[in-house]
TrEMBL record:
Residues 11-291 form the Protein kinase domain. One of its GO terms (molecular function) is protein serine/threonine kinase activity. One of its GO terms (cellular component) is plasma membrane. ATP binds at K39. Its main location: membrane. Belongs to the protein kinase superfamily. This is Protein kinase domain-containing protein. Gene3D superfamilies: Phosphorylase Kinase, domain 1, Transferase(Phosphotransferase) domain 1. Keywords: ATP-binding, Cell membrane, Glycoprotein, Kinase, Membrane, Nucleotide-binding, Receptor, Serine/threonine-protein kinase, Signal, Transferase, Transmembrane, Transmembrane helix. PANTHER family: OS07G0415500 PROTEIN, RECEPTOR-LIKE SERINE_THREONINE-PROTEIN KINASE. It holds the Pfam family Pkinase. It is found in: Cell membrane. It comes from Selaginella moellendorffii. It is a single-pass type I membrane protein.
Length: 291
C-alpha cells in the first residue's frame, strides 16, 4: 500500500483503535467497505529506505514473518507500506477489539465462563503456533497480555502484535539487549538485560493472562479490606496451595455457568506456567492439551 492511500482510508489517521509497543493502530475502511487495522510504527526509522540498515532489516524481517503466518488464532497481515520515514502494517480488523477491553471495562464484561474458556484456548493455540513455527524456527512473541488478544464478533481469539517478536533458531536463544514485554506479564528471566529469551517467557505471560481471565481483575488490584495493593498471580498461587480456587472467580460471572472443574484446571495450569524457573514451565502444546 502507498502511504497516501492508507492516509486516505484512515481519514488521515483519525480513529485510534489502540496504542502498542511499536506504535498506534488506526481504523481504516477500504473502497469495498472492508475494515482494516493500520499500525503506524513509531518514528525513528531512517529518512531514506536502506535495505542494509538494522531498522529496515528488522521491519522487512517482521513483514516476511507475518506474511508466512496463516492460522485461525493469529491476526492476519494484509499488507504493508514502506515509504520513508513512514513504516506501516495493515492487518485484518476484529470487531470486538481486545480481551483487555471486554474483560476489564465495566460496560462490557464477559459474564459467560464458557466464552472466557473459548478465548483462553484460542489464545493458547495461537501462541503454540508461534512456538512451533516452520519446525526449525520459532517465534517468541515477548508481549503476551490481554491487550494483544483480539476478538472477533463471536469472541474467537486471535493473538496480535508482533512488534516485539523475533525469529529464532530452535537451537539458539534471543539475547535480551532491551527490556521486552510489559511490566507484570514479563517473566523473571526477562528482567536482566543480556539474558537469553526463550519461548518459556511467553508461557509465563500466558499464566498471568489465565489468572486475569478467571478473576476479571488486572494484574495489580486493591483488596476491599485495608485497601491493600495485591499482586494478582501471587494471590492466586496462595489460593492454589490452599485449594481455594473458587475464591479467585470473578463475581460478575453467571453462577449457573461456572464449571468448578474447569476453574480448578485453569488455575493449576496457570500455576505451572508461573514457575520462576523457565525449565519447570510447560510447553504451549502441553498447555493446549491440558485446557
Amino acid at each position: 500500500f502507498s502511504y497516501d492511500y492508507l492516509k486516505c482510508v484512515t481519514k488521515d489517521f483519525a480513529n485510534v483503535l489502540g496504542q502498542g509497543g511499536y506504535g498506534a493502530v488506526y481504523l481504516g475502511v477500504l473502497p469495498d467497505d472492508t475494515r482494516v487495522a493500520v499500525k503506524l510504527l513509531n518514528e525513528g526509522f531512517p529518512q531514506e529506505f536502506d535495505s542494509g540498515s538494522n531498522e529496515d532489516k528488522s521491519f522487512l524481517a517482521e513483514v516476511a514473518t507475518l506474511a508466512n503466518i496463516r492460522h485461525s488464532n493469529v491476526v492476519h497481515l494484509l499488507g504493508f507500506c514502506l515509504e520513508a520515514p513512514k513504516h506501516l502494517l495493515v492487518y485484518e480488523y476484529l470487531e470486538n477489539k481486545s480481551l483487555d477491553k471486554v474483560l476489564f471495562e465495566p460496560t462490557t464484561p464477559l459474564t459467560k465462563w464458557k466464552t472466557r474458556m473459548q478465548i483462553l484456548i484460542g489464545a493458547a493455540r495461537g501462541i503454540e503456533y508461534f512456538h512451533s513455527y516452520s519446525g526449525d524456527r520459532r517465534v517468541v512473541h515477548r508481549d503476551i497480555k490481554p491487550a494483544n488478544v483480539l476478538l472477533t464478533a463471536d469472541f474467537h481469539a486471535k493473538v496480535a502484535d508482533f512488534g516485539l517478536a523475533k525469529i529464532m533458531d530452535t537451537a539458539t536463544h534471543i539475547t535480551n539487549f532491551t527490556m521486552p514485554g510489559t511490566v507484570g506479564y514479563r517473566a523473571p528471566e526477562c528482567t536482566i538485560i543480556g539474558d537469553a529469551i526463550t519461548v518459556q517467557a511467553d508461557v509465563f505471560s500466558f499464566g498471568v493472562v489465565c489468572i486475569e481471565v478467571v478473576s476479571g481483575r488486572r494484574l495489580v488490584y486493591v483488596e476491599q479490606q485495608g485497601r491493600t495493593r495485591v499482586l494478582l498471580f501471587r494471590r492466586a498461587l496462595e489460593l492454589m496451595l490452599q485449594e481455594e480456587y473458587m475464591k479467585l472467580v470473578d463475581e460478575r460471572l453467571a453462577e449457573d455457568g461456572i464449571d468448578e472443574d474447569e476453574v480448578r484446571k485453569v488455575v493449576r495450569v496457570a500455576g505451572w506456567c508461573l514457575q520462576e524457573d523457565p525449565k519447570q514451565r510447560p510447553t504451549m502444546d502441553a498447555v493446549v492439551a491440558l485446557l
